[in-house]
Amino acid sequence: MTYTVKFADEARKHFERLDVDRKRLIGARVEALALNPYDRRISKPLHGVLKGLRSSRVGGRRIIYSVWEQAKIMYIVSVDPRGEVYRDR
After folding, report:
1. Model pTM score
2. What is the H or E stretch that residue 64 is in?
3. pLDDT tens-digit readout, 71-83
4. Comparing C-alpha atoms, which of 71, 64, 63, 73 is closest to residue 28?
5. Which domains, and CATH codes, for the chain?
Protein backbone atom coordinates (compact mmCIF):
# COMPACT_ATOMS: atom_id res chain seq x y z
CA MET A 1 0.00 0.00 0.00
CA THR A 2 1.27 3.45 -0.88
CA TYR A 3 1.54 6.06 1.85
CA THR A 4 0.48 9.65 1.23
CA VAL A 5 3.51 11.94 1.35
CA LYS A 6 3.29 15.31 3.07
CA PHE A 7 6.10 17.84 3.52
CA ALA A 8 6.68 20.21 6.41
CA ASP A 9 6.84 23.78 5.07
CA GLU A 10 10.58 24.09 5.71
CA ALA A 11 11.29 20.70 4.11
CA ARG A 12 9.32 21.69 0.99
CA LYS A 13 11.28 24.95 0.73
CA HIS A 14 14.61 23.10 0.94
CA PHE A 15 13.45 20.51 -1.59
CA GLU A 16 12.27 23.17 -4.07
CA ARG A 17 15.67 24.96 -3.89
CA LEU A 18 17.63 21.87 -4.91
CA ASP A 19 19.15 21.58 -8.37
CA VAL A 20 17.33 19.43 -10.91
CA ASP A 21 19.54 16.34 -10.49
CA ARG A 22 19.31 16.26 -6.68
CA LYS A 23 15.59 16.95 -6.82
CA ARG A 24 15.16 13.97 -9.17
CA LEU A 25 17.21 11.65 -6.93
CA ILE A 26 15.45 12.71 -3.74
CA GLY A 27 12.05 12.56 -5.46
CA ALA A 28 12.76 8.99 -6.56
CA ARG A 29 13.75 8.05 -2.99
CA VAL A 30 10.59 9.63 -1.57
CA GLU A 31 8.53 7.59 -4.05
CA ALA A 32 10.33 4.40 -2.97
CA LEU A 33 9.78 5.25 0.70
CA ALA A 34 6.09 5.91 0.04
CA LEU A 35 5.77 2.26 -1.01
CA ASN A 36 7.51 1.00 2.14
CA PRO A 37 8.73 3.63 4.63
CA TYR A 38 10.23 0.90 6.83
CA ASP A 39 12.48 -0.62 4.14
CA ARG A 40 15.76 -1.30 5.99
CA ARG A 41 17.76 -1.12 2.77
CA ILE A 42 17.01 2.58 2.30
CA SER A 43 16.08 3.90 5.74
CA LYS A 44 16.82 3.53 9.41
CA PRO A 45 15.12 4.47 12.66
CA LEU A 46 16.65 7.32 14.64
CA HIS A 47 17.39 7.18 18.35
CA GLY A 48 17.69 9.49 21.33
CA VAL A 49 15.97 12.86 20.95
CA LEU A 50 14.88 11.93 17.43
CA LYS A 51 13.28 8.63 18.45
CA GLY A 52 10.16 8.00 16.39
CA LEU A 53 11.66 9.51 13.25
CA ARG A 54 13.39 7.73 10.40
CA SER A 55 16.24 8.77 8.11
CA SER A 56 17.08 7.98 4.52
CA ARG A 57 20.38 8.97 2.91
CA VAL A 58 20.60 10.24 -0.65
CA GLY A 59 24.17 11.25 -1.38
CA GLY A 60 25.14 13.92 1.12
CA ARG A 61 21.50 14.72 1.97
CA ARG A 62 19.23 13.19 4.59
CA ILE A 63 15.48 12.83 4.41
CA ILE A 64 14.07 12.83 7.95
CA TYR A 65 10.48 11.66 8.21
CA SER A 66 7.84 10.19 10.46
CA VAL A 67 5.17 7.66 9.62
CA TRP A 68 1.59 8.02 10.77
CA GLU A 69 0.48 4.43 10.42
CA GLN A 70 -3.26 4.84 11.08
CA ALA A 71 -3.66 7.49 8.37
CA LYS A 72 -1.01 5.94 6.07
CA ILE A 73 0.89 9.24 5.88
CA MET A 74 4.63 9.72 5.54
CA TYR A 75 5.47 13.19 6.85
CA ILE A 76 8.79 14.60 5.68
CA VAL A 77 10.26 16.79 8.38
CA SER A 78 13.56 17.74 6.75
CA VAL A 79 15.60 17.42 3.55
CA ASP A 80 19.04 18.81 4.40
CA PRO A 81 22.75 18.08 4.18
CA ARG A 82 23.91 15.63 6.84
CA GLY A 83 25.84 18.27 8.77
CA GLU A 84 22.74 20.44 9.19
CA VAL A 85 19.89 17.98 9.46
CA TYR A 86 20.57 16.81 13.01
CA ARG A 87 21.25 20.27 14.50
CA ASP A 88 18.64 21.96 16.67
CA ARG A 89 16.49 18.86 16.89
Report:
1. 0.91
2. strand 61-68
3. 999 999 999 998 7
4. 63
5. 4-85 (3.30.2310.20)
